Amino acid sequence: MRSDRGQSAPLGLKVAAACGLLFLHLPILLIFVYAFTTEEKSFVWPPPGLTTQWFAATWNRPDVWDALSLSVRVAAISTAIALVLGTLCAAAVSQTRFFGREAISLLVILPIALPGIITGIALRSAFALADIPFSFWTIVLGHATFCVVVVYNNAVARFRRTSGSMIEASMDLGADGFQTFRHVVLPNIATALLAGGMLAFALSFDEVIVTTFTAGQQQTVPIWMLEELIRPRQRPVTNVVAMVVVLVTLLPILFAYYLTRDGDQIAGSGK
Amino acid sequence: MTIAAAQSNPTPAILPGSGGMRGALSDLFWRRPKLLLLLMLLPPLLWLGIVYIGSLFALLLQSFFSIDEFSGLINRQFTLKTYGDLLQAANLDIILRTVTMAALVTLASAIIAFPIAYYAARYARGRWKALFYLGVMLPLWSSYLVKIYAWKLILAKEGILTWLLAKLNLLWLLDGWLSLPVVGGNSLSVSFTGTFIVFVYVWLPFMILPVQAALERVPGNLVEASSDLGASPGQTFRNVLFPLALPGIVAGSIFTFSLTLGDYIIPQIIGTSRLFIGQAVYSQQGTAGNIPLAAAFTVVPIVIMGFYLWGAKRMGAFDAL
Amino acid sequence: MTSAVSFKQVSRHFGSVRAVDAVDLDIVPGEFFAMLGPSGSGKTTCLRLIAGFEQPTTGSISIFGERAEGVPPYRRNVNTVFQDYALFPHLNVLDNVAYGLMVKGVGKAERLKAAEEALSLVRLPGYGARRPGQLSGGQRQRVALARALVNQPKVLLLDEPLGALDLKLRENMQEELKSLQKVLGITFVFVTHDQGEALSMADRIAVFNDGKIMQVGTPEDIYQRPNTRFVADFVGSSNVLPPVFVQRYSGQHRWGSLRPESIRVSSAASGDGVAARLVGTNYLGATTRLALDADGLRLHAVVPAGMALPAEGEAVMLTFNRDSLHLMDEPA
């Protein structure tokens, strides 16, 4: 649809699109207001007063810090694993045509295409069958599995845009396989990998469904929030954590968008 | 090192290998590209194949085990008894409720998504296009739990929605709706209506993106041609736009349908005490300890999605993903 | 004297497709050699076999007397100018040109100096700091050339390097490439599907069809004395004459070829010649191309523009010098 430059949309369409976008954004903005409310026991609107005291209260909660630290560690390690596996897979699938590449694409996408509860319970029952106790590593195992796809999608898109003759040109000029990877392939896919890594981090940081099945007593930030939603202890603290979580996931998404904005346009479509 | 001296270039035509491990490995990979391919594929295939597919098979296998009703221990012998349990009226009720909800959520998402996707694809340009893209992308990637939490705040009895309706003198409407059977309840946050709204909200971006992708591929002059030929806007929508956007809608519905089928957190936080498939799976494997029945329950969305994907593929929906 | 490149019964099969089929080829050091043929004729595969991107299924290839089968591209002292130039988008022009020296371990100062020199050679001095994306098609092509030449290759391969350029630029580059090759004395192997380009630039031409070499020779050989109907037709669209026709004029029952510009057209209704009818005229600027029908045989003639022409449909008489009728090797 390219031929409508300058033509303006019908009013009804404008209103419907604007309402749709407001519907998407207002609830998130509401979180920011509630983080400052003075009300402790209920969700009353409008807030009876505004205060910043809950930021200090949250700061002094060790359980929040523990959850945050666990989430960051899990996301970092899962992202690292997903980067390696996703890049290898994307390179293999896009550089060569071989029997079964469609099946491999499907295999990579499956952990995110099937409902999270299936991935979660499958992993849990497999851990039970194999007598693997829950630990930091069982969480990472689950997260890395569904993070592969975002790295893979970003890397595949970039490989597709990278001219195949560039690798031949490098070898022609005397670079062996390793030099070609180091001096040509890596620089060309670096921003796509960074974007994929950012998204994988955000995905892992936010994941709750699979995590409820693969974590034992440990709490990631989403698990902590889920607990608070089901059995609220101190609502204002939850409000503050919710706001911080929104900000923390926002930044990598914006950065990933910035990195892939000319062309790839698929940064987030892997979620 | 001047190039003009190349006439009497004494260097050999074939250069010696660089030697050492690196040179040897590089030559080996060049000679046997299949070996390199295998080495590249091995780690991801081992990971996904063993960790993921292995787990899925283990799960499937367990759905053919049964639970001993007296001891609560799992009897590892092949039986279809668990699938028999799945077909009890109470469980069928859960399945029907979930599928109905998924269908309604999909329909509502498509209706809300269309104007946004259409505007972004046909009218938004340059800076506005980027803004629209981020406007969909940011809610998509915002924390799932925070989004649910935001709706808990909105739908609460003392929350902003009640306040707004009171200001507009429309509380009677809310009370009337809540007094209806099935969709009503004590407040919106403990009703199916609330569950429905939150589902639509959380999965909406997944519908907008593929519909927009499908509409981007519709040439703009097609719409003009249609109105040129005397079609009313309604006819143009029905006969031109909708059929062309349909693959995108179907692609989006794969997400909205599948995600609703498998979710257990939204109905747990905002909804009634009546269960959805996800909650049934969760409680069967958790409190009830009946892993076989939980496994059998997960087969339901897998089978439904299998048929759904098969149908979607036949409609060409995958091109819009 | 050893050949710069020598193919002995080289074949390259892709599944059941014989891209290159039992080719013998010798390229003389220092010559400008063109591989000419329609797309899919195997010329590009031959180029890739020399570069090392493809390996022969059977047969042997040597470069300056050294066997090249199983030698990876990065160990061949042969460089390529790619059809799409394949410049590295993440490096500036100078680093692109210096790439080959960099991976060989040449020190930074030395390699940048050599790269700057190579850029001067292709008349792009001072362009080193730009990105490939900021250059025009012609400039990119020169950078690709400099990037290959800086390595002092024994053989320079050019894969349709002028294909993406517009006509004017292409003509300039043809002259430049030709003089560059003379100055440097490097063996150039040039792939093209444009017969005019091959004829004007090459010292020798190999005409490819269907994975085989049909004819190898100087441009004059190829143009004046095609050995098969394919070559006659592909290189400058000669008139291909059937054996029956040829026998009447030369006494030999063989296929023949006659260049369009060798045919004289007169409006005389009688006399010694081939009776024909003018069926079409095509104005080409300096010349006019005539389509003629000689008793069912379609012929073309090229006459200087401005010559008085009979009207279309009228009878004409065709004459030609017996010497210009070339007999081809292809069996009747």
Topology:
The complex is a heterotrimer of chains A (271), B (321) and C (332).
Chain A: H1 11-34, H2 53-59, H3 62-95, H4 101-113, H5 116-129, H6 136-161, H7 165-172, H8 177-206, H9 209-214, H10 221-230, H11 235-260
Helix pairs in contact in A: 1-11, 2-11, 3-6, 3-8, 3-10, 4-6, 6-8, 7-8, 8-11, 10-11
Chain B: H1 20-31, H2 33-62, E1 66-67, E2 74-75, H3 81-86, H4 89-122, H5 126-141, H6 144-155, H7 160-167, H8 171-178, H9 192-216, H10 220-228, H11 233-262, H12 265-269, H13 277-285, H14 291-314
Antiparallel strand pairs in B: 1-2
Helix pairs in contact in B: 1-2, 2-14, 4-9, 4-11, 5-9, 6-9, 9-11, 10-11, 11-14, 13-14
Chain C: E1 5-14, E2 17-27, E3 32-36, H1 43-51, E4 58-63, E5 66-67, E6 78-81, H2 93-103, H3 108-121, H4 137-149, E7 155-159, H5 167-184, E8 187-192, H6 195-201, E9 204-209, E10 212-217, H7 219-224, H8 229-234, E11 239-241, H9 243-250, E12 256-258, E13 264-266, E14 274-283, E15 287-294, E16 297-304, E17 315-319, E18 326-327
Parallel strand pairs in C: 3-8, 3-9, 6-7, 7-8
Antiparallel strand pairs in C: 1-2, 1-4, 4-5, 9-10, 11-12, 12-18, 13-17, 14-15, 14-17, 15-16
Largest chain-chain contact?
A-B, 93 and 105 residues
Number of strands of chain B: 2
How many domains comprise the coordinates of chain C? 2
Q: What is the name of the CATH topology of the largest domain in chain C?
A: Rossmann fold
- Main β-sheet description of chain C: 6 strands, mixed
Mean pLDDT of chain B: 83
Q: Order of helices and strands of chain B, N to C?
A: HHEEHHHHHHHHHHHH
- Overall, the morphology of chain C is elongated
- SS-based class of chain B: mainly alpha
Q: Name the helicity range of chain C.
A: 25-40%
Ranges of chain C where pLDDT stays below 50 over 5 or more residues in a row are none
Percentage of residues in DSSP E strands of chain C = 25-35%
CATH top level class name of chain B: Mainly Alpha
Compute the CA-based radius of gyration of chain B. 28 Å
CATH architecture field of the largest domain in chain C: 3-Layer(aba) Sandwich
N-to-C span of chain C: 37 Å
